[in-house]
Amino acid sequence: MLSLRILPVLALIVACTPHDVPPPTRSAQFENYPERLFDTFEISCDGPGERFENVGNRVFECTELLPPETTAFLILNYDGYPQDLPKSVMRLTSTKNNLGYRVDAELFFNIPQRTGPSVRVPVESETLDKALGALYQAMGGSLT
Question: Residues 6 or more apart from 48 whose CB is under 8 A from it?
C-alpha cells in the first residue's frame, strides 16, 4: 500500500520542474468504481500535518505540510507567501468512461503567493510511479 508519509522523503529526492510544465499523470482503468481505492486513500491520509478532502465530484486530495527545509526552499525559489505555507498535494480523480472508471493521480507542491493564484510545482518520481502502479493493480486496476 502506498503510504503518504513518503512525501517528505520524496520532497528531498524529487526534481522540481518549472510550473509551466504539465504535472505528471499516473493513471489506471477500473471496471467498477474503485471505492476501496478511495477508502484506502482516505484512511492513509491521517498522519500529523495531513488533511483529506473531497474537493469535487470524484476528486479527492490529501495535503501535507512539508519539512522546514523543503518549505523554505519552495518559498524562496517560487516567491511563496510565508504566512500561508506550501503543502504537498496528492490528488486522485475518477472519471466515468465506456470501460468503467479511469483514475488519474497527480502529485504537486502547492505554493501560495501573496497575490494571485498559487504556484503548482509538479513532482516527478519514478519511485512514486511504481508505488502507484502497484497500488492500482492491488485494487483491481489496469495501468494505462
Answer: none
- Is residue 39 a contact partner of residue 62, using CB atoms and an 8 Å limit? no
- Whole-number average pLDDT of the chain: 86
Cα–Cα distance for residue pair 14/62, rounded to 1 Å: 18
Domain layout of the chain by residue ranges? 4-10+23-143
Q: 86 in helix, strand or coil? A: coil
Take residue 70 and report the three cell numbers written for it.
523543503
At CA 86, angle to CA 80 and CA 91, rounded to 5? Answer: 130
Contacts of 25 (CB under 8 A, 6+ apart): 104, 105, 106
What is the reported pTM? Answer: 0.80
Give CA 81 to chain center in angstroms. Answer: 21
One-letter amino acid for residue 14 of the chain:
V
CATH of domain 4-10+23-143: 3.30.530
Query: Whole-angstrom Cα distance, residue 11 to residue 110?
Result: 12
